[in-house]
Amino acid sequence: GESVGLHLPTLSVQEGDNSIINCAYSNSASDYFIWYKQESGKGPQFIIDIRSNMDKRQGQRVTVLLNKTVKHLSLQIAATQPGDSAVYFCAEPRPESGYSTLTFGKGTMLLVSP
Amino acid sequence: NAGVTQTPKFQVLKTGQSMTLQCAQDMNHEYMSWYRQDPGMGLRLIHYSVGAGITDQGEVPNGYNVSRSTTEDFPLRLLSAAPSQTSVYFCASSLDGQLMTQYFGPGTRLLVL
Description:
The structure holds 2 protein chains of 2 kinds. Chain A is mostly beta strands. Chain A has strands spanning 4-6, 10-14, 19-25, 32-38, 45-51, 56-58, 62-67, 72-77, 86-93, 102-104, 108-113. Chain B is built from no helices and 11 strands.
């Protein structure tokens, strides 16, 4: 299947700043994406998803933007807090599994300093 | 409701040894899957199951076996461990394959010497 990848391996921000984590995908037919947060020593945790019929989706303090023209999506975290420190992954469903499993990008580590 | 549980938390094996990583869920989820995560990488799919008695291969299945005798359990077997299998292993389950409902376990850290 096509791969999902990230631009930056580590992002360091100050508490209160807005964070932007980027992700590129290669398959123009991809139509659903999920962002996961993985805290140290834990499994990934669902944050937010977006379908290709949307350009933007907002959650609590998080916004995902999807640009299908350049095959790029981003996760924006508003007023970043120390508890946001984690690795963030974008992922997309694997068609071979009936879209029930995932292909993950490599991840971006977000470090939030007080 | 314990969610997805994995045992052991940490294991050291010697090359050639066999072991089974356990995964159980109490949410009556039909879909279960195993991923491995190597340092600085995303998770890669090993095997998955869409229901009891049904399993299929993922992206990196070589060296691993699975079976799904019950809805609750999905063990992952390493028949002859190799250093390349040193990784963190995550089990996940979801209701009807809906990824929004997918939960990951806490992981098993495996070191093969």
